Amino acid sequence: MNVRRRLISGTAVAAVTALGLGTLSACSSDSAAAANTDKFDVVASFYPMAFLAEQIGGDHVNVTSLTEPGQEPHDLEISAKQTAALQESDAVLYLKDLQPSVDDAVAQSEIKTKIDAASLTTLEKHGNEVGGHAAEHDDHENEESSGLDPHIWLDPVRYSQVAEGVGKAFEKADPDHAADYKVNTTALVKKLDALNTQFKDGLANTRTKVFVTTHAAFGYLAERYGLTEEAINGLDPESEPSAARVKELEKMAKADGVTTVFYETLVSDKTAKTIASDANLRTDVLDPIEGITKKSRGTDYFSVQEANLKALKTALGTK
User: Fold this and answer.
1) Which of 62, 77, 133, 180 is 20 to 30 A away from residue 317, measured at CA?
2) 16 contacts 137 by C-beta, under 8 angstroms
3) Could you tell me which residues come within 8 angstroms of residue 299 by beta carbon, excluding any fewer than 6 positions away?
4) How far apart are the first and last CA of the chain?
5) Count of Cβ atoms closer than 10 Å to residue 98 Cβ
6) Cβ(63)–Cβ(57) under 8 Å?
7) What dihedral angle (degrees, nearest 10) is formed by the CA atoms of 102, 67, 159, 217?
């Protein structure tokens, strides 16, 4: 599907890290919790991976997350305690090129089962045309970013593909519980298929196909459902947007019927509200689901995605 992805150009100081990143939470216990248990011990890199591990593993797994609640994922530096827990685990589930310190730790570990979610589906090299994620990656030393957009979990279809791959990996690594892993994977894939149908039907007939967000995390979701993501990039959340940029946004909003500027639950809404006020637009939350906290509009991946769908339908204007 050929879908437009544009940036609202400007020369404001880049602050993608401040604008574009949410916080994460571990699905289960403390990230440095003892990994050597009587269950199938899985270390997950951050929330979307931990959620998959728990949904597929069920009662047979002990899942810990390397990324603590409220912790920015890209800048994660693994502690000695976490490294030790990783070494003692039965499997690690991560998304390569998203967290450099995780990639390094996994590469150096002797853990038998290493599951890279990025290898279980297809990634695209969105780069700057969908926003600042590639530019943000460039700010991290020692990271050889592939330039591929990592936000595969926001597309239910790609996330489902990853789930199937994780299920097969669990079956192979822990054959005693393979039958249960297969059943759990099938159930999860069915729920993700239903979510995909909800998005597809819910966004099929809207007055506009364009949405504006401060985080260019929704490229895969936009592409899946025929939408266009307009990423506001390079704006410091504490600074005022330039008059020229606001004017350009107003022009685009009028042309494309944009009504809303989206921001994240866990990031300051100051920039979004300033732009929205000047352009006479509304603001709302669109959650990249990099973690679940008390501020999230939901308790898990599915409930937050349903909240995202509701917000998009309102902003785009369902017919």
Assistant:
1) 133
2) no
3) 292
4) 22
5) 26
6) yes
7) -90
Instruction: Tell the burial category of 220 from Cβ atoms under 10 Å away from its Cβ (0-12, 13-18, 19+).
Output: buried
| Torsion, CA 96, CA 101, CA 104, CA 107, rounded to 10 | -60
Helix segments in 21-132, DSSP class H: 47-57, 80-88, 100-108
Residue type, 73: P
Range with top average pLDDT, 26-30, 174-178, 210-214, 248-252: 174-178
pTM of the model: 0.82
Positive or negative torsion for Cα 73, 74, 77, 82: positive
Closest Cα partner for 218 from 24, 49, 12, 22? 22
d(CA 76, CA 80): 13
| 5-8 vs 40-44, strand pairing mode | unpaired
Is the pLDDT reported for residue 123 higher than 70? yes
Reduced to 3 states (helix: H, G, I; strand: E, B; else coil), residue 130 is helix
The set of residues, in sequence order, having a beta carbon less than 8 Å from that of 294 and lying 6+ positions away, is none
Question: Which DSSP state fits 14?
Answer: P
* Residue 272, pLDDT score: 84
Residue 34 tokens read as 């003892």
The answer to whether 64 and 85 are in contact (CB under 8 A) is yes
Joined together, the tokens standing for residue 84 give: 């030790």
Cβ pair 131, 108 in contact under 8 A? no
Long-range Cβ pairs for the range 284-288 (8 Å, 24+): 284/260, 284/311, 284/314, 284/315, 285/311, 286/211, 286/213, 286/215, 286/218, 286/262, 286/311, 286/312, 287/22, 288/22, 288/151, 288/154, 288/215, 288/217, 288/218, 288/264
